[in-house]
Amino acid sequence: MNIPTIICSLFALFSIVLLAVYKKGFKRPHLKSLYRGAFGFLAIYLVIQISVFIRWEFFLENKISDTARNFSFITGAVFALSITLPFLVIDLISTYFKHQKSNNTSIH
Q: The domain containing residue 34 runs over which residues?
């Protein structure tokens, strides 16, 4: 049984639940973008960790490289971040321009 993968999966699941509970607290547009980015990161990370756990426990018969399995939580985090970061940057930029546009039209 791979303890780091299980601990990180439980942490991601707990964090997703906390974000879902405190969703109403993110009222500003940029905080909503960060919320979406964090939620997306944690969801992708959780899927990666569950798939790694299932693969290592049930589909691989000869578990040769225990090092790769023990560092899979870091690799999963890097992969999830590389997927989520472009979406977060695009979301923050679009939120910034929408906010600028709404501020300019309300002044005139």
A: 3-107
Burial (Cβ within 10 Å: 0-12, 13-18, ≥19) of residue 38: middle
Q: Which residue has the tokens 């980015």?
A: 37
What amino acid occupies position 86?
Answer: P
Residue 29 is predicted with a pLDDT of 85
d(CA 46, CA 76): 9
**Residues 55-67: b if buried by 16+ CB within 10 A, e if exposed:** ebeeeeeeeeeee
Q: What are phi and psi of 27, to 5 degrees?
A: -100, -30
Digit-coded pLDDT (tens) for 61-95: 666 667 777 788 888 899 999 999 999 999 999 98
Report pLDDT digits (tens) over 4-15: 888 889 999 999
Alpha carbon distance 96, 90 (integer Å): 10
Domain count, the chain: 1
CA 75 to chain centre: 13
